[in-house]
Write a structure and sequence with these properties.
By secondary structure, this protein is of the alpha+beta class. The chain has 10 helices and 20 strands. Helix 2 crosses helix 9. The longest helix is centred in the N-terminal third of the chain and has 13 residues.
Length: about 450
């Protein structure tokens, strides 16, 4: 993913949290029966007691194997600031649940083990962590997961109400699908890119323009992305209004970013100068909805430019393929027009054999209301933090990622207010274990330091 001119070319061995009782919507108490209890007590009584403690208790084989008991008398002290029983997770610096807020969320072995929507990352990047839990029954509901997430971000307290108990009414849950076509949107357009081959020990990155099955300006309120495994990223770009007609790429043609000899394809690079970032992800499956009444506007004069990037460092050819649904709204339904933001550093150098921290700052000339935030880096990145820069909140941590391949997509509700003269401080740490210096580049073996946001203004 690059700037406005050049954008990014952008957890089975040890059982842990086991569920022996199936959690269904009927297990969720009405909201008026839940209120009045601390957030931790709700987690214990509504989630652990019903989905975990039946197996994670004294005398069970699962409890003995995991070294973790989650019955009400010991669960809190067994979780908080404790090392996991899994040696690999321990070596990775994880704890079961920490008390440092947002920074603890992505260092939490509990969160790794129950966060089913991030299943691709769990098994691809941490196969020695065991299985996603609960095992053998339904995953936790989206509402249960979000309730636990809010509790951890609030410092995992034993007392006090720090998470919204109404979340538990959301009984939808993650459904594991490897790859299948998406159902087209009722209002909007679907794009299908591929299938295409990715040769052994290679990377494939290209652009392909679609005129789109709509005419005139559009307002995007939701998008769905489904990709085959081994995707590095997918980005949907628009084009600047002022792009000369000679630089508008032909429709439906695959334009590789590199020639067969590895050199950049200059005609592809030229058209990239006129890109406008629209949406993108490093997650293989993503279903993202903007806040109610908010939409991304695009003039749609030249359609969209699709940018898939696949890598294959195996000895066999793999297949790349993806579906994208762009859901649209009638202008009369739109109350707020959202914008996209991309900031970062392209001029850094990472000396071989060294750990390097790169800091970059960006400041806004207007008040912004940020409702989405995520980072982008490559495999040498070990930590990516974002702080507020400037003003009374200078240095406040608002985002952190320890996973370059599936960085968290932070949805902020209410939005994060950034005042005029304030901005973001990007702090990215890299461990260059290679025997050569590394700098900014488009290959997955190069590096990047980028942040993307969606926001609106007054």
């Amino acid at each position: 993913m690059l700037n406005n001119r050049i954008f990014i070319i952008v957890s089975i061995l040890l059982l842990f949290f086991v569920g022996c009782e199936k959690d269904t919507a009927s297990n969720v108490e009405p909201i008026n029966e839940i209120t009045g209890r601390s957030s931790w007590k709700i987690i214990q009584e509504e989630i652990f007691d019903k989905s975990c403690a039946g197996c994670h208790s004294v005398g069970t084989s699962f409890g003995n194997q995991s070294g973790l008991m989650l019955t009400a008398d010991v669960a809190y002290e067994n979780l908080i600031n404790r090392e996991p029983h899994n040696q690999v997770a321990k070596d990775d610096g994880l704890e079961l649940v920490g008390t440092e807020g947002l920074a603890s969320l992505y260092k939490s072995y509990l969160w790794e083990k129950i966060n089913a929507p991030d299943k691709d990352h769990f098994y691809a990047d941490h196969p020695q962590y065991g299985e996603i839990m609960p095992l053998g029954v339904d995953f936790l509901t989206n509402g249960q997961l979000e309730f636990i997430r809010q509790w951890i971000v609030a410092g995992s307290p034993e007392t006090g109400a720090v998470a919204d108990s109404s979340l538990l009414q959301d009984s939808a849950r993650y459904v594991d699908v490897l790859f299948e076509p998406l159902q087209p949107p009722e209002v909007g357009v679907q794009y299908h890119i591929g299938p295409f081959d990715v040769a052994p020990n290679s990377e494939v990155e290209f652009f392909q323009r679609s005129d789109g099955d709509t005419t005139g300006p559009i307002y995007i309120t939701r998008y769905e992305i489904m990709m085959r495994p081994n995707s590095h990223h997918y980005i949907l770009y628009g084009f600047q209004n002022y792009i000369p007609s000679a630089f508008v790429p032909p429709e439906g043609v695959m334009r590789n970013i590199r020639n067969p000899n590895g050199d950049y394809n200059l005609s592809t690079i030229a058209s990239m100068q006129y890109h406008v970032f629209g949406l993108g992800t490093q997650w293989r499956r993503l279903d993202y909805s903007l806040p109610p009444g908010v939409a991304l506007y695009y003039n749609n004069e030249h359609g969209f430019d699709h940018n898939p990037h696949y890598y294959n460092y195996s000895d066999t050819t793999i297949t790349g393929e993806l579906f994208v649904n762009v859901h649209m709204a009638d202008p009369s339904e739109v109350q707020i027009v959202a914008r996209t933001l991309q900031v970062g550093d392209q001029g850094f150098n990472l000396p071989k054999g060294e750990e390097t921290t790169v800091v970059d700052e960006w400041y806004s000339d207007q008040r912004m209301y940020v409702f989405e935030l995520f980072s982008h880096a490559h495999e040498l990145n070990t930590e990516f933090a974002i702080e507020i820069a400037g003003g009374d909140r200078d240095g406040e941590l608002i985002y952190i990622s320890y996973d370059y391949s599936h960085p968290p997509v932070l949805k902020l509700d209410p939005p994060l207010e950034i005042n005029q003269g304030e901005g973001f401080r990007l702090i990215a740490t890299y461990d260059n274990w290679r025997d050569y210096d590394v700098s900014f580049g488009f290959l997955s073996t190069d590096e990047m330091m980028l942040v993307f946001a969606k926001y609106y203004t007054d």
